Amino acid sequence: MNMSLFSRLGRKYLDLLKVHPVKTKAMTSFSLMAAADVAVQSRSEERLDPIRTLRFASFGFLFGPAGHAWYGLLDRVFKPSASLGGLIKSVSVDQLGFAPIILGTFFTYLCVLEGKGAEATRLKLSQDLPPTVVNNWFLWVPTQIINFKYVPEFLRLPVVSSVALLWNIYLAVMTSKPVKPREADNRFKHDSLETA
């Protein structure tokens, strides 16, 4: 492919963002989450599970419209590119409020689609959500500082989606990780068997 093809594709994508921002962002997030899950699965010796990829990517499809609304709201309320105060407020609200909520929603959503019960979902959240939120901050705080300060609002979600390709690989690994039973839960079950 030559550079003019990439240039034309880039212009077409920008046009789509302006004409159909929500649909374009939904499909961008869907595609990049699918690519991340396929990348993780390709490292396994097992066959590619397209249903797993579809479940994972479908969250991206839902996140696109949510992210569009969220970044628009932050821009209107805090005007992050206009002042240091607005930038700090935007990044803080995004990372201390929105990120933990969206990550918790993500884990819960996948557990539901995988048919896991309430207890398995609770264990998944208690084991994987805290380290995921902390790791999220290492990547996303610097990314969002740059994103909010220098990137026009209509391009913020595509920037996030692009950086998220790496992040989504991490999430695909975290969601495919089996949940370990808690020691306290095992001890309780063992004690109740002895008293029976």
Automatic annotation (TrEMBL):
It is a multi-pass membrane protein. It comes from the Eukaryota. Transmembrane segments: none annotated. Keywords: Membrane, Transmembrane, Transmembrane helix. InterPro entries: Mpv17_PMP22. Pfam families: Mpv17_PMP22. It is found in: Membrane. The keyword rRNA-binding does not apply. GO terms for cellular component: cytoplasm; membrane. Its main location: membrane. Belongs to the peroxisomal membrane protein PXMP2/4 family. This is Peroxisomal membrane protein MPV17. It comes from Rhodosorus marinus.
